[in-house]
Amino acid sequence: MNFKKAGIFLVFVFSFHLVESCGVVKTGRRGKKTTTHIKTNVNNSVNSRSKAVLEKANSFLGTPYRYGGTTSSGMDCSGLLWNSYKEINIELPRVSREQAKYGIKIRLQNVQPGDALFFNTSGGDISHAGIVDRIKNGEIFFVHASSSRGVIVSSLETEYWKKRFVKAVRFIH
Predict the structure, then answer these.
(1) Global confidence as pTM
(2) What broad class of enzyme is this (predicted)?
């Protein structure tokens, strides 16, 4: 094999490995694995409006958290929803508690990519939101702006999110 072919082969192998390792999985307390940042591909079977919302939301992955933020220099959870749904001309309020009042409430078993999830993380009212990114083997993954990690994808199966889930809403009909 000449040097040029060997170089192309190494670039291919390295690129494949890089794509494979975009997600970072950390082991949290008690040895449980938690997803902290996964670069996802939007499923082609998702309708075009949901796909546009998810592509916008995923474009912010890795963006740091900033209370009240709505840009790639800093984003909060309601800003992520506000920005993402705005992509398909759905105007939402800027606060998650108010966003949860819009759309159609749906059962968790019926969520689809592009639906919104709302959580109570403060002990009072709805205080956090995310967008269903994908469902794999019944496990729901959602993109959201974490106050400690910025915009990430998490699993609804983690105890933290499971305990705090309040409702699912569909804005896209």
Answers:
(1) 0.75
(2) hydrolase
